[in-house]
Amino acid sequence: MSIDGTILASGKDGTGGGSDSNASAGGGGAGGAIRIRTQDVVTGNGTLTANGGNGGVAVNPNTQKGGGGAGGRILMEFGNGEIPLGLKNAQAIAGQYGNPTSEHGTVVFRKKNTSLPDDIWIFTTFDFQDIEALNDTYTFRNVIFDGAPWIRIEGAGNPKTLQAASLTVNNSIVQLENGLTWDIENDVLVQGDSLIQAAAGKKIRTLFDVAGNFTFDANAHIRLDGAGFPAAEGPGKGENNGCAEQTGGGGGYGGLGGFGTGATQGATYGDPNNPQDFGSGGGEGCGSTGGTGGGSLEIKVEKDMQLSGLISVNGNPGNGDGNEDGGGGAGGSIKMSALGTWSGAGMKFQANGGAGSNTSITNDPVSGGGGGGGRIYLCGQNMKDADNLARLGGLAQAQGGLGGGGAEPRYNGAEGSIVWCTSVNIAAGPGDPGNILEWGWIGSCIADLGSPFCNLSGSLGWVSSSCRKLKEGGTIDEANCAQASYGVTADFNNGEMSGFAWLGTQDNNRNAIGWIDLNPPGPYPADPQHGVRFDKDNFANPLTGWARVKSIYESGLPATDWGWIKMSGPDGNGGTYGVVLEKVNIGGEDIALLNGYAWSGNPNDSFPGVGLGWISFQHAVNIIPAYIQTVGGDVFAGGNIRGSVNPPPEPGATYLILANGNIVNFTSAQAGPEYVQENVGLSEMNLPSPANQYANVLGKIDKQKIVTVVDGTKNVYGDIVQSFLVQDPLFLNGSVWVAEGDQTLNGLSIRNGANASEDASGLIIVNGNLTLNGDIIYTSIGDIPILHTQNLASVAWLIEGNLTIGPAVENLVGAFIVLGQVIIPDSAPESEKSLTVRGLIMAQGYQFGRSFSGTPGNPQPSEQIFYDGRLLANTPPGLSDFALALPKIERIAR
């Protein structure tokens, strides 16, 4: 169907009367109806008009004007093709003149889908009460408000739900006359000069429940100002002072309302971590009214949130008439949460209290109290404190309103609450909680497996196998399942796994990937051609098969694209990796635990070109106290070893613990008393020092020969000796680097060798104290592979004084031999970080001061030392004697 002409159904204009004072004027006629129905594609650039007629005007226009006619109705229903943009200028506006002005009509384009809900486009005005709401729910597929000057969500009856696959609001005004839930399966886009606002005098709560992304442009505005409790109503209502003092107190909510003259303040109420309430109204005076409180808004997004506009739920100011003054209304509620990340620029959130009135006559001290601030809650992977918001140029305000009493603070409303989340909650789970109670971690350095590739900054976070959590003492906590039921099930009858794990994190700088399907649809990228399975007859054999990130295959990407996770296979270095299952019985239920590594990368090998990287599975218990852990090596002490936690949450060492003194609250991962020996009385366990010529039970470091140049720039061993010069990245070049005096490093990258001749090992000698305020990491040069073990970056540090590790440091690498103390202070807010050292540390003493311990269900060491084997693989100059005594890594050990 093509429409290129004009279809007109407008009302006639009214006529005017004579010129005398009694002359009258006729009203305009209402617009009629235009309805077009076709299964065809609609095209054309025609005109559709159903405007109301203008009211007539008498000859003397100051005497009589006729009312304008209401706009009519235009409905186009079509079955195929896209929206006919050439017809989007259709009009059904009201005629002019008259008081009050008549209302606009409606213009709707609706695509009738046979098996899906209809698409709907609204270009001018529309009233949703013209559509039947089945069970108070409007159901569409795609909803587009484009340039609509007025769209009303009806106010009659129960709160409504608008259910749609997607929502676009572009340069449109939406007026809410009732509570509304926007239940959107995919994305929401609010752009241009769009305004979503509460109708005057209505108490409005609206919820955006969005399964996709939420985008809110810079000029967009959600305004629920004054959409809370009316004057003198609500749990924190301002006091009505009647005619005694002629004022009202400010309404309260997140903050106390201000005092009025002779009137008390409104109280606080509600939950700052889950703000849902309306702001309370301000108190009234003798003849004045208080301001209404702010409304309630919640936006809940399962993916990313991009915000640049203004969201406000301010309380309204109190009113006065020159003798009496009302109190201001309290600010309302804003709750914003996203499982993904926040972005945008200049976003603003306002939940301010309204000002108290002060319209009294000159020198009259009578005035209303200011409304208290409301409550704001912001949550996302990168939205967990004020600094996160500031980095996006954002601003959150929950200020109290100024009282009418001028400079007297007691008249002012108090500030409300602004809270950032400590964790991102999964909004819903896809099924049964399962019987695998285990955690995995994505982001551990690949050097754990002896691989040269290591990207410490790419950590993605925890993999949770179930909403159920295994607690210390062998009990199971199912509290989280009430919020989100999900999990992975191991079928011990057939050896198959099914269900979903959740990949997310509590770290501000890391994103949630989403659900991981343990039995994804094929085809699979390589053998074996099945989901995850295990050997039900021999649990010692590693798991086989594939898992995949659910959002990847749902997006339609082919099997060759990334998102696959392989449970076992070759590690690319001549060895193998894998995850093994352990069956335990807890409370009469068979439970599965996982240990080992899975790989997400190129489907056919372990080259880290695509995918998530290594996934480390290890048992976790529910603990709070801080603790220290070493992984993959031994612990030696010349005196006592004492842990802070009894019993220790995890083994302090993988293998041998040897001490000249007592060993308390510190255990080995190995069974048997031979692995934990105290009071051994070995004098050889003294730290290498000038007094013993830098020798102990592990070997000898001949420092004098190492630093003495005998041939040009080389020592007796042929190693280059040079002054330490900070450069990033630093290539060690098989050299000895000497730094005189105390040194401070704010971070350093040490790179691998780039060709077969480059030796990336080195020894750094500090003749003084060393302070580290930033991470020390190993790095590669692009995708250049390691051709020889000497290309593997490997650093040793010989420090004559103390080693101080600042509270902002999270990652260190190398073999540290410290002749003084290792000092690791604790300092908020950086104390919420753990420290990971990949290498080894020897020192005269240790001050482990960090208080970080993870969270219940996610225990993490405050300080963790991984013996990574680099000292063996590429021994730095002068340490070959020491390296001979170190343990050799031949398999994954946890």
UniProtKB/TrEMBL annotation:
It comes from Candidatus Kerfeldbacteria bacterium RIFCSPHIGHO2_02_FULL_42_14. Residues 13-30, 279-296, 317-332 have a biased composition (Gly residues). It comes from the Bacteria. This is G8 domain-containing protein. Residues 1-30, 264-297, 310-334 are annotated as: Disordered.
